[in-house]
Amino acid sequence: MSEDIILPATQAMTDPFGRDITYLRVSVTDRCDFRCTYCMSEHMTFLPKKDLLTLEELDRLCTVFIEKGVRKLRLTGGEPLVRKNIMHLIEQLGRHLETGALEELTLTTNGSQLTKHADALFEHGVRRINVSMDTLDPDKFRQITRWGSLDRVLDGIRAAQAAGLRIKINAVALKGFNDAEMPEMIRWAHGQGMDMTVIETMPMGEIEEDRTDQYLPLSQLRADLSRQFTLEDIPYKTGGPARYVEVRETGGRLGFITPMTHNFCESCNRVRLTCTGTLYMCLGQEDAADLRAPLRESEGNELVSAAIDEAIGRKPKGHDFIIDRRTKRPSVSRHMSVTGG
Ligand code: SAM
Ligand code: SF4
Question: Can you give the residue ranges of every domain in the chain?
Answer without folding.
Answer: 23-339
